[in-house]
Design a protein that fits this description.
161 residues, mainly alpha, AhpD-like, 62% helix, globular
Length: 161
């Protein structure tokens, strides 16, 4: 499979990518734990079949010290013992917020209650925005068939400047 279109070589695409990088920079400085951000981004990307985002968030998480065991178990987090209750709430929100077409009610009241239990308002704002933004990034990458495998940790950090 070949990439259909290089968004980064297009003037509009490059401007939009910079805005995405700016969102990511704000999220990175939020009170939402970085490990939770990477796990949530990884899970949504797995669901959406976004190879470049799975590549990026796996490598970023590993570079930040995330264990291989936890990264390998993200796809089956409900059956794994290595995630905190707060992380489970974030992963559930990521799944339900990603699978909107599959779950006609969207995010369940139970999941929302768990999110409220474990995160403050600033962290919730970051978490909700993160789920929305990773889904948008996944869709752009999948539409143009961007490939995974070449990402290096920190590669996009300079794009926000």
């Amino acid at each position: 499979m070949e990439t259909r279109f290089d968004l980064m070589s297009n003037e509009i695409g490059a401007k939009l990518a910079k805005r995405f990088a700016n969102f990511a920079a704000v999220l990175h400085t939020s009170a939402l734990p970085q490990s939770t951000q990477e796990l949530v981004s990884l899970r949504a990307s797995q669901i959406n079949g976004c190879a470049p985002c799975v590549d990026m968030h796996t490598k970023e998480a590993a570079a930040a010290g995330e264990s291989a065991v936890r990264l390998n178990l993200v796809a089956v987090w409900r059956e794994a013992t290595v995630f905190t209750e707060a992380e489970r709430a974030g992963l559930a929100l990521a799944e339900e917020g990603t699978r909107l077409a599959d779950a006609h009610q969207g995010v369940s009241d139970e999941t929302w209650a768990q999110v409220r239990k474990h995160y403050d308002d600033d962290q919730i704002a970051a978490l909700v925005t993160l789920v929305a933004m990773i889904n948008a990034a996944n869709r752009m990458n999948v539409i143009v068939r961007n490939q995974g495998g070449s990402y290096q940790p920190g590669m996009f950090a300079a794009a926000a400047n």
